[in-house]
Amino acid sequence: MPSRKAEQIIKVLRDEIVSGTRAPGSRLPTYDALMEQFGVTRPTVARVVAALRDEGLITSHGERSLFVSDQLPHHHRYLWVTSEQPGSFEWTNFLSTFLDLIERGETGLVGDVTPLIGVDGRENNPAYQKLCEVIEQGSAAGLFLMSSSTMFLLPVLQSPGLPRAAIWAALPHSGLLQLDFAGLIDRAAERLIEHGERVAVLSPHAPNLAEAQQRLLARGLARQSLLPLHVGPVGCEHVTQLLFDRPDRPDALFITDDNLVEPVLEGLKLAGVVPGQDVYVLAHCNWPRPYGADQGIEHIGFDVREILSVAADCMRAQRAGEAAPVRHVGARFREELLPTRPSVPPPSEG
Predict the structure, then answer these.
(1) Which contiguous run of DSSP H or E holds residue 177?
(2) CATH code of residue 161
């Protein structure tokens, strides 16, 4: 572990490199020059060099050949940060899609994205320790922050620092990437009206359910032809079965949250209803992972790779001096996906 004096020198040199005062590829002082400049011994300089080399900031070829790295980590490295844990009640398909693309290396970004999962602000939390370390060192291009109440309160995010983009809802000192969910619902309503005369809407979120009702009625659907159902994933298959066992069952179905798709499909199966044949089904999804795409369901959703790309643009705007940049991403149907972002199936369970 570097001594206090070594840590001070590391910070000075790191700040000079990260700020651009020492340009990529430029020569650093020799061991002897660093010893004289900082008034330290050769072993202390050796510890400084080893630490900066481990951070990817310098390269060394003997004691007289020290150079700033040509490719600095903070130019092409991002952190994706969430307070949630896979398998927890708060973990969603939205978060799962991000993590899956990051682990596959399919984010579409130039550079690497490192996931930090379960960040909770405790000093003994390894993910939080890593976040603090990266912010202190300035060793990343920026932070993709998945908004949550825990993230809002993280001590290390309460001060300006690395460029950062909050995805979905505002966080301190962050740019903001907003998803146009109202636009998604409006476009979905238009498509549903084209395919059905009696429309059911299933949603776990009361505001989205109310928005869908309003948009469908505004587009001319008769109130008696609208069946809004506030339902969560647990028990959704039985609600769906009952919905389609009735004589006046819907001929179009809108699922506003992809966490409901699997139980809805199970309910349709129990009712003997075939999506795409007996009923038109339109579901929210997180591209490029549409659940039920091979089972007769049409999808509308947000492309996670587009979200990451626009969020990275938000960070570039911060570095250029824009204090609180706000960017928006709209919903897409499959035929509207950008050609470089092909759809891939969700990973199989087990």
Answers:
(1) strand 175-179
(2) 3.40.50.2300
